[in-house]
Amino acid sequence: MTDAQETAAGGAAQPPSQDSAPAPVPLLEPGDGIPPVIADEDGLAAVVAAFAAGTGPVAVDAERASGYRYGQRAYLVQLRRAGSGTALVDPVACPDLSALAAGLDGAEWVLHAATQDLPCLRDIGMVPGTLFDTELAGRLAGFPRVGLGAMVENVLGYTLEKGHSAVDWSTRPLPEPWLRYAALDVELLVELRYALEKELERQGKLEWAREEFAAIAAAPPPPPRKDPWRRTSGMHKVRRRRQLAVVRELWQTRDRVAQRRDVSPGKVLSDAAIVEAALAVPESVDALAKLSGFGNRTGRKQLQHWQNAVDRARALPDSALPQPGQAPGGPPPPRAWADKDPAAAARLAAARAAVTAHAERLSLPQENLITPDTVRRLCWEPPTDHGPDAVAEVLRSHGAREWQIEQTLPLLTAALTASAD
């Protein structure tokens, strides 16, 4: 019987022990030195040939300029493979890396927090066939800290210098300390992958991880987010529909400016300033200038630009105002369930308690055992038949993997059945 089977029978999976680990060793330099940044077609062709000739998994990482530039494009791609060494590729100078992806055909890609990097890698033609996500592996294995630095330290006994993780990677030329940091990010990624594979196998969770990795690799690009302006920080303060319209107009105006200037939207106008204007709904530039975020450093022309957006929202007929709350299509916020549907609230409370307890027994985060959104949707609109087959089909329809269904189906079926009695 595996550890996971023992857990399902009532035991508890044991997270990896870190009590007796020796002091970590600082990793200050890449073993092969800092490679040159590849920024032309000849250099890229040489990298493609070298990595196609390598063996085993390939470590892949990408650096973005979040907080500095508009969007999430890659500004540096790092790779390492046995027999190939480490490569640093500039995707601004070499925007099509599909030949590199083709050269890696059949190789497993090792990424840390793969879902963060895959969108920007996809934009430059790099899409893995199979992958191993070391962050997700750490979560499934029960590590309390799953950042790359923490995982390398706790699993392999080395410390990585992380001082450049939030720098502006669109800078050219890239400073040498940043390149050293970037090369070190893939230096031990394959070694970490093998160590985590052993730990997952020890805990009986390796097949679970493989299902998760396959789902990530096979997932299509996400559709554009509906009403992205609703994710403005501080939106919980905005209650009235007219105020929501001000948020929408200011957000959309800011987004157009940020895209045109290729800067992070927050550098154009802060979320806090948008919410402040929405709450006040100012009627003039002078009134707007008195609000936090629109002070002395904002020129008269800029102020008029933002006031024009507010005026557009003020002029909208009631029929064109946005509705409060999230876009339709999902259950309401759980805090409203007790009033809207007490039976659904009871189902959710029972399901959450059971799933949380089982996740603790398995030593993994509850959201990795089954997503909270899946549990909410099941409990809000349960199948007429509360039997296991019907519940399992609902879970699959919401993207649950087979291992997740196997682990949670008895719990969720019992929660639905108990609340119906």
TrEMBL record:
Biased composition (Low complexity): 12-22
Gene Ontology MF terms: 3'-5' exonuclease activity; nucleic acid binding; nucleotide binding
Region (Disordered): 1-34
PROSITE patterns for this protein: HRDC (PS50967)
Sequence ranges assigned to domain HRDC in this UniProt record: 240-320
Gene Ontology biological-process entries: nucleobase-containing compound metabolic process
Listed Pfam families: DNA_pol_A_exo1, DNA_pol_A_exoN, HRDC
PANTHER family: RIBONUCLEASE D
UniProt name for this protein: Ribonuclease D
Natural source organism: Streptomyces chumphonensis
